[in-house]
Each structure stands twice: as structure tokens, then as C-alpha cells.
Design goal:
With 276 residues, the chain is of the alpha+beta class. Helix content is 25%, strand content 24%. The protein has 6 helices and 10 strands. The strands form 3 sheets. Strands 1-2-8-7-6-5 form a 6-stranded mixed beta sheet. Strands 3-4 form a two-stranded antiparallel sheet. A hairpin with a 2-residue loop joins strand 3 and strand 4. The two termini are 33 Å apart.
């Protein structure tokens, strides 16, 4: 099985066996029919993926790899907050009539700030530091801007990344306040694994570790039968990841710059209900 399968299976079984149910509490999320969307959860799940060994995609069901990349480019490269710039439908429930998700995600990355070295947005600051001061312990991004929360259609879930270079390897910690484990876990893992590869390649580095820290790792009540079915699927070997090594500019990567070779996965033909 892929290493991502191993970790996800362990995480899901741990939540189902040892998690905390919030059914005695009033909760914000709800199902489209108005029913409260309760969860069973674990606090502070931490997973480590060595990107030099294997790309962390699961096989117990298909992860929409191209859609994952399209979204991460939408946020980090286009720095957009409008779903009209996005080719997937991850954000449809949270967009307004003009397609905007407000002051969230890409909007935050595109805000320019003044530094002694000049003006940068958060992405360009990372690129500058990786090339000019790679051993800095200050290479990080943060989307959770309290001043702008009132203008966000959804508060950021994956909100911060800390980058660290060790022995010419680029490592990263993805900080996440909340995770829908069935719907979004491997999407986020794949996205930020690709992001590490992107930053590493254009900075003359190699991809190292991705550490994923989730404060509230949960399974929604209506997802439990689907999780149990998925856990009965047979895990398969991980595919081979390929990146277009000719790209030397972060802003020139496209969805087609990345491939999973021989990606095989178990069938899981269900539309997953989304809590909003």
C-alpha cells in the first residue's frame, strides 16, 4: 500500500474507535436539509511524509490529482479569491453571486507588505528567502488574518505553512485548524506536497518532508458509512510522481507540469455529501 494509505487508514480507525462525539453540543455546520452536521473527532493529528521517497497520494479511493493542483495554483500562483478562475467546484458553496470567496485564501497571499529588502506578497517573500537566505527560520505564510475574517466566506482551514531548509532539502509544516478527513484530507496532503516540490525546484533545492498538523481531525456523521466502506477497499502501491524539470519560474508551472505515473486505485463510486 502507499504510505499515505497507511497513515489515512490509521487516522480514520483511531477517530472511529477513540474519537469524541459532539452530538451533545450545538454546532455551526449543517447539511443542505438544515440538519446539524455533527462529527466524531480527534485532537492534534500529526503525519509526516518523506517526499523524497514517495508521493503521498492514497489508493483506497481516487484523489482528483489535477483538480488538487488546479486549486493550489489558484490560491498560491494566481492568488485569486474568485471561483471563476478555478476549474473545479470545491468552492461553489462558499462563493457569492459574483464568484468571490471574499478576503480569504489567495486574497491574503497577494497582499503586499514592506520589508527591509523591499515590498513582497507572502509567496514572493518565500521565493526571495529560499533563494537568498535559505537557512532563515522565518520563512512562513499565514492566511488567518483576524482583521479580514469578517470578509471571508469561509475561515481558512489550511491556514499556515512553515518552510525550513536542511541540507539542501526543503521541508514544510502545513498547519490546519480543521479537517474533514473523508472529503479533504488527501486533497490537502497532495496539494502541499506538490507545492513543496514547486518551491524546491525553482529554488535549487530538493523536496524533503511534509509534516501535516491538524488541530481538529473529524469525520462527519453522514460520512461514517462511506468511511467504513472505504476502509474495506484494498490499498495499492503508490504511483510515481513526475514534475516538469524544465520549469525554473514558480509562476510558469501549470496543471500539466505534474503527473502521477501508473496511479491505480480502488473503486469508490459515491458522491460525498458536503456540510456547510
Amino acid at each position: 500500500m502507499s504510505y499515505a494509505d497507511k497513515l489515512l487508514i490509521e487516522n480514520l480507525r483511531d477517530i472511529l474507535q477513540n474519537g469524541f462525539w459532539d452530538t451533545d453540543y450545538s454546532v455551526r455546520p449543517h447539511w443542505p436539509d438544515g440538519t446539524p452536521a455533527h462529527t466524531i473527532k480527534k485532537f492534534a493529528m500529526v503525519n509526516r511524509y518523506d517526499l523524497s521517497k514517495e508521493f503521498p497520494v492514497i489508493t483506497v479511493r481516487k484523489t482528483a490529482f489535477k483538480a488538487c493542483i488546479d486549486e493550489i495554483l489558484w490560491i498560491w500562483q494566481k492568488k485569486s479569491n474568485n471561483i471563476r478562475d478555478l476549474n473545479s467546484h470545491f468552492w461553489d458553496e462558499w462563493a457569492d453571486e459574483n464568484g468571490s470567496i471574499g478576503t480569504a485564501y489567495g486574497y491574503q497571499l497577494g497582499i503586499r507588505h514592506s520589508y527591509p529588502e523591499g515590498e513582497f506578497d507572502q509567496v514572493d517573500r518565500v521565493l526571495f528567502d529560499l533563494k537568498n537566505n535559505p537557512l532563515s527560520r522565518r520563512i512562513m505564510t499565514n492566511l488567518y488574518n483576524h482583521q479580514d475574517l469578517q470578509g471571508m466566506r469561509l475561515y481558512p482551514c489550511a491556514y499556515g505553512v512553515t518552510f525550513n531548509v536542511t541540507d539542501k532539502k526543503l521541508n514544510a509544516i502545513l498547519h490546519q485548524r480543521s479537517q474533514d478527513m473523508l472529503m479533504a484530507n488527501n486533497i490537502n496532503v497532495c496539494q502541499y506536497a506538490v507545492l513543496v516540490h514547486m518551491f524546491a525546484q525553482v529554488s535549487g533545492l530538493e523536496a524533503g518532508e511534509l509534516v501535516h498538523v491538524v488541530a481538529d481531525a473529524h469525520i462527519y456523521d453522514r460520512h461514517i458509512p462511506l468511511v467504513e466502506e472505504m476502509l474495506r477497499n484494498k490499498p495499492l502501491p503508490a504511483p510515481r510522481f513526475e514534475i516538469d524539470t524544465s520549469v525554473d519560474d514558480f509562476y510558469k508551472f501549470t496543471v500539466d507540469s505534474f503527473k502521477l505515473i501508473d496511479y491505480k486505485y480502488s473503486e469508490f463510486n459515491h458522491k460525498i455529501p458536503i456540510a456547510i
